[in-house]
Write a structure and sequence with these properties.
The complex is a heterodimer of chains A (261) and B (253). Chain A is mainly alpha-helical. In chain A, strands 1-2 form a two-stranded antiparallel sheet. The longest helix of chain A is centred in the middle third of the chain and has 29 residues. Chain B has a domain of 164 residues: Alpha-Beta Complex (Sulfite Oxidase, Chain A, domain 2). A 5-stranded mixed β-sheet of chain B has the order 2-1-10-5-6. In chain B, strands 3, 4, 7, 8 and 9 form a 5-stranded antiparallel β-sheet that branches. In chain B, a hairpin with a 5-residue loop joins strand 1 and strand 2. Chain B is elongated. Classes of the chains: A mainly alpha (261), B alpha+beta (253). At the A-B interface, helix 4, helix 8 and helix 10 of A face helix 2 and strand 4 of B.
Amino acid sequence: MASLESVRVAAGASVPSSTSASLATTVTSRHSALVRVTHWITTLCFFALLVSGVEILISHPRLYWGETGNVLTTPLFKVPIPASRNLVPTGYGYVLPDQNGWSRYLHFQAAWILILTGLLYTISILVTGHLRKDLLPSKADRSWRTFSTAIVKHLRFERPTEAESWSYNVLQRLTYLFVILVLFPLVIWTGLAMSPAFVSAVPVAVTLLGGQQSARTIHFFVSVFLVLFLLVHVVMIFVAGFWGRMRAMITGRADTHTGRT
Amino acid sequence: MSDLSRRRLIIGGVAATAGVAGLCVAARIAQKYGLIPPDHGGLYGPGETLTYASQRVLTRHSLAREFPQSKISHPPLANEMPPLNDAFKRLQAGGFADWRVLVDGMVDRPASFSLAQLKSYPSRRQITMLQCEEGWSYIAEWIGVPLSHVLDAVRVRPQARYVVYFSIDPDWWDSIDMADALHPQTFLAYGMNGDELPVGNGGPLRIRLPRQLGYKSVKFITRLTVTDSLKGFGKGSAAASLEGGSYAWYAGI
C-alpha cells in the first residue's frame, strides 16, 4: 500500500527534479511486490504452456470447425509443420518423436499455476485499486488526441519520458486490459471446452463455441494472439530501456538515473 | 522499520503455518473422498491431483454429451495400432466365438464371460464422441453392456477402488476408478453404428469411457481385475500404467 501511494506522488511530479528523483529512488516502487511476483510466475507458466502446447499440436497439426475432425475430414486450416504421428499427412517425409506424455502433464500443471496466480492477481488489482488507477484509461486518456498521440509515439518507437514511465499510457492500458480480460479468459475457456469430463458437467461451455473442434481451433488462434502480445511487449521493453524496465519488474525500484543503462 | 519487519515476520509465520495445516487437512479429506489419483507423486503430481480432484467433484455423476444420429461421423476413423498377436488371429479365424472375458480380483464370484453371454445382457446404445489426446475426434453409436452390469454379476467387494482392464496384448492394459467403472456410460462395447464393432475400432470387445480421452478406451478386452491398489501390476506399453507409463492416468482433459 505504501509503495502505491509513493508511485502516485512520483507520477504527480511532471518533471522530477534531481532531488525529488533521488528521493524517489529510495522510497518508490514502480511495481508492487504482488504485481512483480505474479508477472514472473505468469512468464514461466506462459513459456511452459507454449512449449508443451506446440508439442501437443504437432501430434495433429490440423485444425477443424464444428464438433469432430480427423484425417478423413476436411480441415479448416493445416499448420505447415511436420507431425509426430504417422497417420497425419503433412507433406514432410519424416515423423517427429511423440512428446505428448510429458507435454500434457506440463501443460495442465502450468495451466493450474497460471489460473491460481491469475486469480490472486485479479483479486489484488480490484482490492488495491491498481485496476482503476493504472489499468482503466484515465479521464485524460479518454480523448482522441491522447489516443492518437500515444499511437504516433509508439510508431516512432519513442522512448517514454521520466514522468511518463511512472504510469501506463493509454495504449498500454487498453492492451493489458485486452490480454487480462479477453485473451486469458478465452484461452482458459477454450481449453476447458476440449475436456470431455468438464463438458459432461458444463455442456454449454463447448456448445456455445460451436463444438469441440471449434474450441480447439479458437484455443490455437488465441494462443497465437498471446504470442504476438509477448513479442510486442518485449520489443517495447527494449524501446523503453531494457535494463531499467527489468530492474523495475524484478526489484520494484525504478532508479531514474541508472534506468537507461 | 524493525516493527514493520517483525510484524511481517509474525504474519508470514502464521500464514505459512496455516497454509501447511490447511494442506494437510485438504490431503486427508481428498484421500477420504477418493480425490487423489494414483500418479499423484513426482514432478507433475500436484497438477494431476488438482485436475483429478476438481473433475471428480464436478463430474462424479455427469453424463458425457450424446449426439443425434445425424452427427455420426462417416466413415468412423480406425486409428493406427500395434500388430495383432497370434492369439487374436486364432480367435478371429473362429469368428470370435471363443472370445472370453475373465473378471477376477476383489469380487465374490469370479467368472469368465463369453461374447454371447455379454450380448444376452440388456444392451445399451450411446452416440458419443471418441476424442484422441492428439487432437482428432469422431462420433459413433456404441452398442454394448454397461460395465456396471458385469460388475454387479460378479459382486464387487466394498473395498474395491479400481478396475484394471487388459487387452489381448498382455502389455496393453489400463485402469479406472470405481466412479468411472460404475458410470452408466461406461460400456463393454461390441457394436458400432448398428453393426458388429470392427477390429480397427477395437472389435470384438472394447471398453468405452466417453468422459475420458481415447487412450483410456482400450481395445480387445479379455480380462478385468477389480483391486484396491494399482501397485504390482508391472510395466506395460499401457499409456498410463504406474510403472513405465508416460501418459497421465486420468484423461478427463
